Each structure stands twice: as structure tokens, then as C-alpha cells.
Amino acid sequence: SWELVERSGMLNYEGWGMIKSELVARLSERYPHLYHRDVERIVSTVLDEITRALAEGDRVELRGFGGFAVKTRPARLGRNPRTGEVVNVQEKRVPFFRTGKELRERLNANPTDGQ
What we know:
Elements: E1 3-7, E2 10-14, H1 20-30, H2 36-55, E3 60-62, E4 66-73, E5 76-79, E6 86-89, E7 92-99, H3 101-107
Antiparallel strand pairs: 1-2, 3-4, 4-7, 5-6
Helix pairs in contact: 1-2
């Protein structure tokens, strides 16, 4: 269960992490010379371009952060968890993210390293 909390002057569900509007708010605070609407447009444009590239089958790499790609899951037989009935699950494309070296190192850094 998630608890509704106020963080950075905004209501959010604790345990959900950061949502897009929080990212925009944080960037707007960090770069006060930019208008909030411009920061929102920049974030939306970046996410839209990543989505567009993936939809076209391209790979997106952000050096140091990671790479986004699309993997194809083949068709298979599955089961309805309620009834146990066998069902056909169609082939589908799913997004896949692989962390970059710098992100991985930062996530696994010793907290006393000052990072």
C-alpha cells in the first residue's frame, strides 16, 4: 500500500518514485531562468522522441545512462490464472532498458565515496 505524502510542495504516493511532473518541477527549480512550460515541453519532447524511435524499431543510447531497445516476445501458450484455461498469447514487442556503465557504478558506489 502506498501512502499519499507531500514532497517538494507536491502531493505524491510514497513508494512510486518520481513521476514526470516531479521531474519537471525539480528541473524548473534547478534552472530558474527557464519557464516551467518550457521545461515541461523539453521533457515531453525527449520522451516522445525516445518513444518514436523505439516504435520505429531503433535503439536509443544515452551514454553513461543506458540504452533503450525493443525486444520481441514470441507467441506462446499461457494460462488464465483464474480458470486455468489454456490461452494463446500473441507475439508482442516490449521495451527493454540496459543500464550504462556510469549509472551502474553510481548505483553501486559506497555511500561514503561522496557520490
